[in-house]
Amino acid sequence: MRILIVEDEPDVARQVQVALCKTGYAVDVAFDGEEGHFLGDTEPYDAVVLDLGLPGMGGLNVLERWRRDGHGMPVLILSARDTWREKVTGLRIGADDYLAKPFEMEELLARIEALVRRGAGKASPELSCGPVRIDTTRQKAWVDDTPLTLTAMEYRLLAYLMHHAEAVLSKTELTEHIYAQDEDRDSNIIEVMINRLRNKIGANRICTHRGRGYQLTAEDDG
Ligand code: CA
Question: How far apart are the CA of 81 and the centre of ligand 1, in A?
Answer without folding.
Answer: 10
